[in-house]
Amino acid sequence: MRRLEVMKLLLVCCLLSPCLFAQKQKQQRYKNFDKRYIHFGFMLGVNSSDFTVMPKPNAYNQYQLLSIQNDAQPGGQLGILTTVKLGTPTIRFRFIPTLSFQERVLNYKSLDTIWFLNGAGQQRVNSTNLEFPMMLQFRTKRYNNFTAYSLFGMQYSIDLQSQQDASQNFYDPFVKIKKNDWQGQIGGGVEFFAPYFKFGIELKYSHGFKSSFIQDFTPVSNPIDQLYNRAWYFSLIFEG
User: Fold this and answer.
1) Rounded Cα–Cα distance for residues 160 and 226 (Å)
2) What DSSP designation does 221 have?
3) How far is 124 from 18, CA to CA, in rounded Å?
4) How far is residue 207's CA from residue 155's CA, in Å, rounded to a whole number?
5) Whole-model pTM?
6) CB atoms within 10 A of CB 97
7) Tens of each residue's pLDDT in the chain, 240 residues
């Protein structure tokens, strides 16, 4: 009797096992994606940009400066995507020429209020950047219609709105930053496969290798030693 029950139980398990595995494994969409060596697409996103600020060591005594507060501001970006498979579907090279709009705000607090009366106590630095990020993408193996990945690389950026060569107005001074910059980048994201394209959500952090600050000895630049560009990017990526 017990042998009969055991045999029935084994028979039920054998019949149910294909159904159980069928529930876990879904039909893959866009199966040919990883067979191609090159893909194109586009990127839309928002960003939050600011500076890494390094005041001069004697700024508090020499310029009666209490603090320089660095406030991040929202922006946006639009890019054209190219990815190349490097031998295996899990490693890819990514290149996304991007047009990025950024704004940073520096708020000065000082005991000397004379030169703050004309509004110099707050400096807004606006940038319209052409960015050329070159990244290595390391993907997980595909599970059903989902993958995750990490990113490492760098980017070269050109600030089309830079005032590095503009004449300084000492009655209404402004902070100057360099037109060209190199930045290191790190990030990650997730990807979802649709029938005819791949949709990705990505978060990336960028920080300059060198200071982009130009010292021209105005009241707003004297207390500053170095400024490094930095930004967070949140992007939606469509790739075919």
Assistant:
1) 21
2) T
3) 63
4) 10
5) 0.81
6) 14
7) 444 443 444 443 443 344 434 445 567 777 777 788 899 999 999 999 999 999 888 877 777 777 888 889 999 999 999 999 998 888 999 999 999 999 999 988 877 655 554 445 788 999 999 999 999 999 998 888 899 999 999 999 999 998 888 888 777 788 999 999 999 999 999 999 888 888 999 999 999 999 999 998 888 888 899 999 999 999 999 998
Q: What one-character-per-residue DSSP string does 168-184 give?
A: P-TTS---EE-SEEEEE
Any alpha helices (H) in 53-205, and if so which ranges? Answer: 59-62
The two tokens of residue 6 are: 């055991």
Please state, in angstroms and rounded to a whole number, the distance separating the CA atoms of residues 220 and 8.
85
Looking at the chain, how many residues does it have?
A: 240
- Grouping H, G, I as helix, E, B as strand and the rest as coil, residue 4 is helix
Q: Classify domain 2-239 at the CATH class level.
A: mainly beta
CA dist 11 → 2, 17, 19, 21, 33 (Å): 14, 10, 14, 16, 40
Helices and strands in the chain: count of H runs, count of E runs: 2, 11
d(CA 187, CA 134): 13
* Distance, CA of 204 to CA of 189 (rounded, Å): 8
Is residue 93 within 8 A of residue 135, CB to CB? The reply is yes
C-alpha dist (Å) from residue 216 to 52, 69, 125? 19, 20, 15
Q: What does the block give as tokens for 180?
A: 């060209």
Q: How far is residue 21's CA from residue 146's CA, in Å, rounded to a whole number?
A: 18
